[in-house]
Write a structure and sequence with these properties.
It is built from nine helices and 14 strands. With 270 residues, it is an alpha/beta fold. Strand 8 and strand 9 form a beta hairpin. The relative contact order is 0.18.
Length: 270
């Protein structure tokens, strides 16, 4: 039976310049491959070795990029290897099949959101009223499904995020702080639900996953085996559950290690 690999992208397999964590002497730094350009600037990277491993993985397993990015943001990434048949975007809000959003899945998601959590407009209004211009740089809406704020992290009061999380929880929404972004996402909008749907469609017998943030926790619990890097929200909070391996590597070398683990498990079938 096929093996399915559902992996987060940013700060798991691909890395912005600020997230590379190249702590070794310059002469020993790994060669990097740019996999994303935005507005004529290189934006995301992986090591050349990781790119080779990902190409091998695409020939060995069903690789499913699983990201909180919007479809537009995802489609500007140029990953090595065969083009994935399936991709999960907007934290599970869209399943792309050959690059096109699946209408049936999108309808299922919208129905759940309408019945299980407060309207997105209420969240947007609260953020617009309560976010302080001293630290707020941008307020964005992703696919009309969730909101995120771009902030100056050093000026952001930690207590504000905790208060926002408590307020959102009562309305059926969750909050995740990732780098300079605060995500406010409906609780029914999950990567795990979309992964279960792709598993159903592919008939995969073994599922593997990886991720670094609290938005990935449900994904890591939904698959048979999973890995998390030594950085990110999950590492910072010491989060782990049975079946999830906490890796020591941080930054772009963690992405390389995760791909090695994927390949080893996929080839062994366990």
């Amino acid at each position: 039976m096929p093996v399915l690999v559902a992996s987060d992208l940013d700060r798991t397999l691909i890395y912005s310049p600020s997230a590379l964590a190249l702590t070794m002497p310059d002469a020993r730094a790994p060669r990097l491959l740019c996999v994303e350009v935005h507005e004529a600037r290189p934006l995301s990277f992986m090591t050349e070795t990781a790119s080779q491993l990902l190409a091998e993985l695409g020939d060995t397993a069903i690789f499913v990029p699983t990201t909180t990015r919007t479809r537009k943001q995802y489609l500007r990434i140029n990953l090595p290897g065969p083009a994935p048949k399936f991709a999960i975007c907007a934290n599970g809000g869209h399943i792309l099949v050959d690059g096109v959003s699946d209408a049936d899945w999108q309808a299922t998601v919208m129905s759940r959101l309408a019945s299980e959590c407060a309207p997105h407009e209420e969240i947007q209004a609260h953020l617009a009223t309560n976010a302080d211009p001293v630290w707020l740089r941008k307020q964005r809406v992703a696919e009309d499904l969730f909101s995120y704020l771009v902030v100056e992290r050093e000026l952001l009061p930690e207590e504000w995020v905790k208060e926002l999380a408590a307020w959102a929880e009562a309305l059926g929404w969750g909050v995740s702080l990732q780098g300079r972004k605060i995500y406010v996402v409906p609780k029914p909008l999950t990567k795990s639900a979309a992964v279960h749907e792709v598993l159903r469609r592919t008939g995969a017998g073994l599922s593997l996953g990886a991720g670094d943030s609290l938005l990935d926790a449900d994904l890591l619990q939904a698959v048979d085996r999973a890995w998390r890097p030594g950085h990110g929200e999950l590492a910072d909070t010491g989060w782990t559950v049975p079946g999830v391996t906490a890796l020591p590597e941080r930054g772009v070398l963690a992405g390389e290690r995760i791909l090695r683990e994927f390949l080893k498990a996929a080839r062994a079938g366990v």
